[in-house]
Amino acid sequence: MINKNREEPLLLSHILNDFFNTHFTESDQWFGIKLWHSWSKFTTKKILKQTKPVSYQKGRLVLWVDNSVELQELHFYIEELKQTINAYFQKQWVTEIHFTLNKDILKKREQSVRWLKKLI
After folding, report:
1. CA–CA separation, 94 vs 49, rounded Å?
2. Distance from CA of residue 97 to its chain's centroid?
3. What CATH topology corresponds to 26-119?
4. What is the pLDDT along the chain (120 residues), one digit of tens a residue?
5. What global pTM score does this model have?
6. DSSP string computed for 40-96
7. What residue segments make up the domains of the chain, in order of their start?
């Protein structure tokens, strides 16, 4: 597909992004994908190293944390993190944040993301 104004090919990822942003703006799954993809854009380097989003449903965000000490420390930043995420997406998506140390959840999420990247 060619963009007639620019004479450049449109990337499938841009087409899909526009489609999902138009038709699935209220979807938990779509927000979870956008959150995973954008995680490095609004988190500090320290939080980025310590955490990965693994689940989102109905306002409840679950973050994987790599050790229990950091998990305890992150409890002090829950409100700030919620505000930062919601401000970035300009909507009150996240109402709760929970943490997990379970690596199996992280592995499943990373497999899903790899599959999606191959698709796009």
Report:
1. 21
2. 13
3. GMP Synthetase; Chain A, domain 3 (3.30.300)
4. 445 555 666 676 667 666 655 655 556 677 777 888 788 887 787 787 889 888 888 999 999 998 999 999 999 999 999 999 999 989 899 999 999 999 888 777 777 767 666 665
5. 0.69
6. HHHS-HHHHHHEEEEEEETTEEEEEESSHHHHHHHGGGHHHHHHHHHHHHTS---SE
7. 26-119
